[in-house]
Amino acid sequence: MKKVKLGPQTLLYPMPAVLVGAQVKGKPNFMTAAWCGIVASTPPAISVALRPARYTLDGISANNTFSVNVPSADLVEKVDYCGIYSGHKVDKSQIFKVDYGKLHTAPLIQECPVNLECQVIHALELGSHILFIGEIIETYVNENCWTDDKADPAKIDPLIYSTVARQYQRLGEVVGRAWEVGKKVKS
User: Fold this and answer.
1) pLDDT category, 163, cuts 50, 70, 90?
2) Which superfamily, per CATH, for 15-184?
3) Phi and psi for 14 in degrees, rounded to 5?
């Protein structure tokens, strides 16, 4: 099959649509981010990439903490709102019910089925974005999102962001069991 060259692009699928939280000037603030991912298991760590102009960055830099809140698909309107409007111009502190965990400065969204409470361990300036690496200090998952003593992605119903189409989607069907389906391939 012939490939079409696009030049350097940020086409990686799926991209999560998460809400990054930080305490900014004494109030919780949230921004939508798709440039986010797990980077280590020991210690458990996650990365988020933010443009320097983002209001949330002020809170992360001041407190060295942030939260990554995984919204379910039913929160799509609020997720998009947090991506459209900057905390520089709009007070987003009342959009969600907020809790705090061990760190006391990383706001956790009650409505989100998964919350990761993070302590900054690295910040890297990478051109258009600053990449924050956060050690995951605590993970919170809603009780109704469990199956067989494990967090269940189908019950979490996370949003996925499609860059090219500029739309949000849900997870799709299961197509194979990890560490099993590959055994069908013989070398």
Assistant:
1) confident
2) Electron Transport, Fmn-binding Protein; Chain A (2.30.110.10)
3) -80, 160
Contact 116, 129 (CB under 8 A): no
What is this structure's pTM? 0.95
* Span 52-69, average pLDDT: 97
| Structure tokens given for 107 | 């706001």
Query: For residue 150, how many other CB atoms are within 10 A of its CB?
Result: 9
Cα–Cα dist 24/134, whole Å: 17
User: Sign of the C-alpha dihedral, residues 110, 82, 137, 11?
Assistant: positive
Q: Which residues of 51-76 are buried (b: 16+ CB within 10 A; e: fewer)?
A: eeebbbbbbbbebbbbbbbbbbbebb
CA distance 56 to 11: 25
Token pair listed for 127? 């051109």
**CA-derived radius of gyration, the chain:** 17
Residue 11 has pLDDT above 70, yes or no: yes
* DSSP per position, 44-78: EEEEEEE-TT-HHHHHHHHHSEEEEEE-BGGGHHH
